[in-house]
Amino acid sequence: MSNIIKKTGLILIGAIAGMMLSLNFSAIAKKENIEAIHPLPIEELRTFAQVFGRIKSDYVESVEDKKLITEAINGMLIGLDPHSSYLDKDEYKELQIGTQGEFGGLGIQVTMEDGVVKVISPIEDTPAFRAGIKTGDLIVKLDDTAVKGMTLNDAIKLMRGKPNTSIKITIVREGETEPLVFNLVRDIIKIQSVKSKMIEPGYAYIRITQFQEQTGENLAQAIKTLFAENSGAMKGLILDLRNDPGGLLNGAVAVSAAFLPENALVVYTEGRSPDAKMKLHANPEYYLRGPDEDYLKGLPSAVKTVPMITLVNGGSASASEIVAGALQDHKRSIVMGSQTFGKGSVQTILPLGNNTAIKLTTARYYTPNGQSIQAQGITPDVLDETDSGDEQRLREADLNRHLSNGKKTEKKAASETEKAALKPASDKKEKKEKKNKDKNKAPIEFGSEEDLLLKQAMNYFKGITASPEKKSDETETKS
């Protein structure tokens, strides 16, 4: 038995070493200025081979080599940060479908936390949203299968499926003494990327729910329609990015470019490889895919100067934070709401062949003034005064293994638990009573008459002319 394990280990070490050398030599061929190859970690590879051999010889059931290697790859990536992962054929296909804005499922943005699936945000107009799934809910069972021990991708696979099929989701929610059970029916999740309307004469409202392939074009059409509908001068425009989980980077650049001067810096990235260092400007080459005609050409000139307010909250992440940060840094828009999610890392999809790929974090996003979005988010110019309860929302900094901010002067923000501990007992009691009272209320539709933050933005346009208070040095970081 010992000899078998040793032979297996030697063969595996040789295979892994050969693969790593092959990958390194391939990289050298592509990059002339690559750093010297690091020596292979022979001791660690030997341990890996020993574990592999023990599983092959002693595990209670026979396990295929393919499964073991795939799970090892999964483990490597999952251990890095919450956003790096291995994509098998089905997952790679689902990722491509998702960016096109239509798929079969429930409509929940999720992450993995302490072995269970945690809800970041339900997507508007979906089964999960209508059923009352809330931010911070912990999904512990899918039908009769416990989530503990699953990968995030495995859980997502179970939640997605053919339309009109049902699934039972068991949730643990803060403040509830017993688990909550939801019976949901899957639906075609058609995400309308851009919604728009005139709130009243002179005041336009545009909501972006997610950044997809057609977001830039849809926004351009919405702007043209709104300005054509308004007979007089446009007095104000509200861009709503609340609960927008992000999406495609070129979509974020296109949205920013619609409101910023040409050539304005939108965002830049910093990473280890030369390919991870980018500066993206408000120019067609950074948001168009291929030789298509520039859909932002011919927009009303007033769209570059009309007073703007951008609405954000703890569900505004990634691409939506890029837009909010760019508009804020260029002083193009007042940002109003609550601290954003803080997902400021770049994931690159690297195909591996056989229709599989890895999603690997390769860089961090920085706003034009040098503020790192990662684990910090965008701090609004005007804070939400509507007591929306957004402080209870999960954020990037709350996730296990989250990537650091990347700044040497970074100060760790107090967790929501720590903040709550500092509040007076009376405040805590009032918050708890309000939370218990509101926990079963249907989610407020953004842009509706019940949307208090939208009303606050309109009041700001009409009556509050004072400049917003300057953010503290603790949250304002510039290079």
From TrEMBL:
Keyword check for Protease: yes
Residue ranges, annotated region (Disordered): 396-450
GO biological process entries: proteolysis; signal transduction
Domain PDZ: 92-160
GO cellular component, one term: outer membrane-bounded periplasmic space
UniProt keywords, alphabetically: Hydrolase, Protease, Serine protease
Source domain of life: Bacteria
Example GO molecular function: endopeptidase activity
UniProt similarity note: Belongs to the peptidase S41A family.
NCBIfam families per record: prc (TIGR00225)
UniProt name for this protein: Carboxyl-terminal processing protease
Organism this protein belongs to: Nitrosomonas oligotropha
